[in-house]
Structure of Cytochrome c family protein:
Amino acid sequence: MKIISIFILLTFLFACAGVVAGASPTEAGTLSHEDFTSYSTCNRCHAITTSQWEGSMHYHAFDDPFYQEELKLASEESNGSLDVFCTRCHIPVSVVSGQVPPIDNPNISEEADEGVGCDFCHSVKESSEIGNGGYAVTPSETKYGPFDDSESTYHESQYSEFYTKSEYCGMCHQITHPASGVVLDDTYQAWSEGPYAEEEEVQCQDCHMTPGITEFEANPGRAGSGAPKRDHISVHNFAGANVFVTGILEEDEHREMAIERLQEAATLEVSLPDNAQPGEEVAIKVSITNSGAGHNLPTGLTEARQMWTQVDIKDSQGREIYSTGNLDKDGNIENGIIYWAVYSDADGNPTLKLWEITDVISDNRIAPESTAVEVHNFTVPEGAVDPIIVDTKLLYRSAPQSLIDELFGGEYDVPIVEMESVKGGINGEVESEGTPGFGSFVGLIALLTIYLFRRKM
Ligand code: HEC
Ligand code: HEC
Ligand code: HEC
Ligand code: HEC
Ligand code: HEC
């Protein structure tokens, strides 16, 4: 049954992507690490590209402490049966060259140690399947890339359209559990079924390898020393939403880029009545639109990433009337709506361990260009001093605090990013602090409308 469902899923994904099954994926241990070149060599001529990639999560895909802790636990609890599976995307060169497993090999070569690196990426000629690291990698003198007229004294160059398409990223950014067949990361799939693939033809590269966070933006320059000036060369910082691990690793620039990206990802609208009498029941409508991400919001490590709203309603004396989405003393989100996917293990219990997952309990993440609407009800108390202040924030973090405490024993506080905020008043105007308040609320909606209108053009 399970094998059949995986087969059906893969067939479906091939059909979506129009990928023709060519070469089979490169098997573990069939190459040598000496077939690959370290990035320090590429750096000689591609210094700007290298400096962009160096602080990225691709560069850190292997030494990422969050990954390392989960990998250890996954390996222990599955008796090593997932070692090749996990490492295939996180440290590809070590897998194809047979250095990992074991996962704690102390003698990893320089070429493998670099996570998802230059020479690995530019030696992938084709992929046999979307997802689960279905790459066919053929390291050689030839580097594949987006140019059809590129010349270098060091290597041969060959144009490959594959590098300009989302299917390339889909090799690793789509994960299906090898045993249960549950989709654990649907970044590619959500993109391929959404408006960016179908109507707008916006690829992963347009948002993640150009200065434009939500659309293509040209980046004129030279791709290497001595190379001709071109209208566009790609940006290799691969900024995502990882504010937590970039912070631990002190990659400040990449951390800032992740914050900026999260703040471009969504729009928040709050509608509230102008007036309400004591004793009256009030409904506040909060709408969250995935206006900037080409896939679900959140995406990626979906059993962990959390986005939620915090709604605080107080009277003008600061007396609390209604509050939701706050943290308790252990850092858990109290009584708020969290946008994420919740999975269960074989016993039907919720689990954060991706290797244990056998089913999806719920998934309320917001699809690209879609809107989720929440309604918050409260009763205006007798004696509330006007105006009543409604403060709404859209928040994000890379993982629940409980998971990080379990892995790191209380060493880290998971940072929370404020993606958007809106403040408004009932029975009077409210001063905003930097963010649009009641007075400028109509203005905000007007701005959003202009923004959405511009996006469509
Ligand atoms: C995750 C895979 C990946 C990694 C890692 C990677 N690249 Fe790229 N690279 C690409 C893709 C995909 C493109 C084409 C993007 C496009 O045109 O839309 C590209 C484009 C290029 C180009 C063509 C010029 C340009 O900038 O568009 C050069 C040169 C290049 N990469 C060099 C490097 C070097 C050097 C490194 C290591 C520091 C590196 N790449 C790391 C995937 C990767
Ligand atoms: C001696 C200098 C030099 C070294 C070393 C070097 N390159 Fe290049 N590379 C260039 C130049 C110059 C270009 C041409 C850029 C252009 O056409 O705009 C280029 C182009 C490329 C392209 C674009 C190919 C295409 O057709 O789209 C890729 C990809 C690439 N290099 C990857 C690498 C990788 C990976 C390494 C390290 C293994 C590396 N390069 C090492 C000089 C170098
Ligand atoms: C060989 C597998 C592989 C390929 C191909 C690949 N990635 Fe990744 N990517 C990874 C892994 C593994 C990570 C996560 C590393 C970590 O967080 O430990 C990652 C992380 C990222 C992140 C950072 C996410 C965050 O949390 O901030 C972005 C953005 C990203 N990739 C975009 C791309 C794009 C765009 C492409 C295609 C041009 C691509 N990747 C191709 C394996 C890959
Ligand atoms: C229209 C622009 C756009 C497109 C297209 C797009 N992304 Fe994103 N991506 C974003 C934004 C904005 C975020 C930050 C919000 C979030 O995490 O969803 C993001 C976040 C991510 C992250 C970080 C998730 C995490 O957990 O930290 C990864 C990985 C990623 N994208 C990969 C991809 C891949 C792979 C594709 C193509 C299949 C793609 N993106 C297409 C805009 C885009
Ligand atoms: C098909 C490729 C693939 C496989 C297989 C894979 N991963 Fe990943 N992993 C990724 C990508 C891509 C990301 C980045 C997604 C994102 O940013 O949310 C990632 C992110 C992670 C993260 C989050 C890191 C961070 O800094 O936030 C952890 C932890 C992780 N993976 C652990 C594992 C473990 C454990 C396994 C094996 C059970 C595994 N992965 C198998 C591709 C893969």
The radius of gyration is 24 Å. Residues 1-21, 434-457 have pLDDT under 50 and may be disordered. Residues 265-456 form a domain with the Immunoglobulin-like fold (CATH 2.60.40.10). DSSP finds 16 helices and 19 strands in the chain.
